[in-house]
Amino acid sequence: MPEFHRLRVAEVVEETADARSVVFDVGTDRLPYRPGQFLTLRIPSDRCGSVARAYSLSSSPVTDGRLAVTVKRTAEGYASNWICDNVAAGSEIDVLEPAGVFTPKSLEADLLLFAAGSGITPIMSILKSALATGSGRVALVYANRDERSVIFARELTELAAAHPGRLLVLHWLESVQGLPTQEAMQSLAAAFPDHDAFLCGPKPFMDTARKALREAGFPKSSIHLERFASLAGNPFDTATPADAVTPAESEAEEAQPEDSVVEVTIDGEAHTFTWPADKRLLDLLKENGIQAPSSCAEGICAACECRVTEGEVTMVNNQVLEQEDLDEGYRLACQSLPKTPKVKVDYD
């Protein structure tokens, strides 16, 4: 079962009229994390006891002494409204340990960052960390409705002034320039070849930015997206029905396919295993001591994305991979079951 921590809120910072940064009275010595990761918070609910919501850490493990998440109020968002209306200094909130793989492999790399609205939160963590410890160049394209909607406006201005040779901040305001177009973002991206690109924001924005990057010649391996969807269950719940049957178990009972053999290449090393027909690939790797990337294990975050280079698999659930990804062989390890006698998978 996942472990959770009860954290006390040190302060709440009003970033804009509808965005708040919740600063916890805890540092990286207690909860270490990587730039771009997120926290899952337990939010009380009169209807069901509690709900779980993931919010990106906007603090940097390098420059900030305390962990902070930034939450933007949305019209239909129960959790975001509860946080903005109720959380104050002294409040206590249960959180799971930091998670997520939306983080640079190296803070020395040149980075091209695309953010829209509250998508700036993990981007801010990455940006501050890279400027503090790396030597690469950082370019940020940040889209918002208008000037009043810009989260971290003053901090971004101060960082750009402090790092004039390394940080370039380009604001895109819908009130002035309209919605960002693929052509405009492609033109911007073309000015920063060989950069690692990180994208976070509403799905239409990320879809447009992703297409722009691919058209600008960026390989898929250098394009990183942070995508959240509602969790199927509440990870803070401590018990599950004893007679619960997962979709994978149900399918295996009906079809009863034979086991397969899978060869997995990760970190430059190939591993071969017998792959039981009713076992998901991520579970198989963990059982065999392979530290494969993962996060939600529900098929909604793409952290466990890998590429099938030979054979076929079937996915129980997929809420994040687009048809373009599927056509290129990308699959979610946490949802993949073997479909052919032999399968080859590449994480590199």
UniProtKB/TrEMBL annotation:
Q: Recorded GO terms, molecular function? A: 2 iron, 2 sulfur cluster binding; flavin adenine dinucleotide binding; metal ion binding; monooxygenase activity
Which InterPro entries does this UniProt record tie to the protein? Answer: 2Fe-2S_ferredoxin-like_sf, 2Fe-2S_ferredoxin-type, 2Fe2S_fd_BS, Beta-grasp_dom_sf, Cbr1-like_FAD-bd_dom, FAD-bd_FR_type, Flavoprot_Pyr_Nucl_cyt_Rdtase, FNR_nucleotide-bd
SUPFAM superfamilies referenced in this protein's UniProt entry, alphabetically? 2Fe-2S ferredoxin-like, Ferredoxin reductase-like, C-terminal NADP-linked domain, Riboflavin synthase domain-like
Domain 2Fe-2S ferredoxin-type: from-to ranges: 260-348
Cofactor(s) demanded: FAD
Q: Which UniProt keywords apply?
A: 2Fe-2S, FAD, Flavoprotein, Iron, Iron-sulfur, Metal-binding, Monooxygenase, Oxidoreductase
Entry superkingdom: Bacteria
For the region Disordered, give the residue spans: 239-260
Q: Residue ranges of the FAD-binding FR-type domain?
A: 2-105
Composition bias (Low complexity) maps to: 239-249
What Gene3D superfamilies does the annotation carry?
A: 3.10.20.30, Nucleotide-binding domain of ferredoxin-NADP reductase (FNR) module, Translation factors
Enumerate composition-biased segments (Acidic residues).
250-260
Q: What is this protein called?
A: 3-ketosteroid 9alpha-monooxygenase subunit B
Q: Which source organism does the UniProt entry give?
A: Saccharopolyspora flava
